[in-house]
Design goal:
By secondary structure, this protein is of the alpha/beta class. About 35% of the residues lie in helices and about 15% in strands.
């Protein structure tokens, strides 16, 4: 692995990064059933290679400003979308804090539309995908349906199973009992998972996402400044859809024709690392990011730099561009 230089947790939101973010084009498109999907993109002057980012649950591309900056510095055009029901995209529930999707494949359909409508017209020679957590479940489903789109994929802490408080069968039974949805005026009335709440940021001490107090605080500040991206717990319906999708995607990743690198967060308490290990095959490899919590891209520099170096290396290794 080539150890590369990336931005530092001690210098977040520099004038360089702020100036860069002003060049990023932010827009949206509409799905066939009228849902607005927000996205961001930046074209590198060398237009050969591009990366598409598929983010995790509760996230928004605004959280990925530092990563987008770093990837651009490595010579890539970058695209990122906010999945339906979160970030700056349309919310589907009357309570905008509920994590909800009707069918998990709706995420994949939106992603496919994004690729066809926004990314492909830019005529890059080569496309890569970087996904995180739930974004990897969506990406696995996409790679299964469209194996020719991406040269390679990097999955950070993929959601191939969620860490649950009880056995999956018990959680599923309970979620089915509590899953109660009705549509009114085009939006859904839904129910939070047991113990679910509105957006409530944990203190850094209690967080299980990153060891970097600087990046954690910066992430929380961004979400305080852009209140419309805030999202709370998932609904029972989302949980049922997500558990089934995660299960299916173990096989999709294992048999993927697209090379996949899994960045496994050693100390992950959000998703299940054992499920990730079930996907390993000739095309699907893993690197363990030692000591890392769930979010390797906002981890402390030592861990983040290793994860990003592996990412850039893996893409270079599979690149067909001389």
């Amino acid at each position: 692995m080539h150890y590369m230089k990336f931005s530092s947790e001690l210098k977040l939101n520099t004038s360089d990064q702020r100036h860069f973010w002003q060049q990023v084009h932010q827009s949206s498109f509409c799905t066939h059933n009228g849902i607005k999907i927000a996205y961001a993109m930046i074209q590198h002057p060398n237009n050969q290679r591009a990366i598409v980012i598929s983010n995790g649950r509760v996230e928004s591309y605004v959280k990925y400003q530092e990563l987008i900056y770093d990837l651009y510095q490595q010579g890539f055009s970058v695209y990122a979308l906010d999945h339906r029901g979160q970030g700056l995209s349309d919310r589907l529930t009357h309570n905008p804090h509920q994590g909800y999707v009707e069918k998990f494949t709706d995420y994949t359909d939106d992603f496919a539309q994004f690729i066809d409508q926004v990314v492909r017209p830019q005529l890059h020679e080569e496309l890569f995908i970087i996904a995180h957590s739930m974004g990897c479940t969506i990406a696995s489903d996409y790679l299964n349906k469209y194996p020719q789109t991406f040269t390679a994929a990097v999955f950070s802490a993929p959601m191939f199973a969620i860490r649950l408080p009880f056995a999956q069968s018990v959680v599923r039974w309970l979620a089915q009992k509590l899953d109660n949805n009705r549509i009114e005026a085009g939006k859904v009335h839904s129910t939070f998972v047991l113990g679910g709440t509105h957006y409530q940021p944990d203190s850094f001490k209690r967080n299980k996402l990153t060891h970097s107090p600087f990046r954690y605080q910066h992430y929380r500040n961004v979400f305080e400044d852009t209140t419309e991206v805030q999202l709370g717990s998932p609904t029972n319906h989302w949980l049922l859809e997500a558990m089934s999708a995660a299960n299916r995607c173990i096989n999709y990743a294992k048999h993927s024709q697209t090379p996949i690198l899994i960045l496994q967060a050693e100390k992950d308490t959000i998703v299940c690392n054992k499920a990730q290990n079930q996907t390993l095959s000739t095309h699907c490899h893993k690197v363990v990011i030692e000591g890392a919590y769930h979010e390797v891209f906002i981890e402390s520099d030592s861990m983040r730099n290793i994860a990003l170096s592996h990412t850039i290396d893996f893409m270079a290794q599979h690149s067909t561009i001389a």
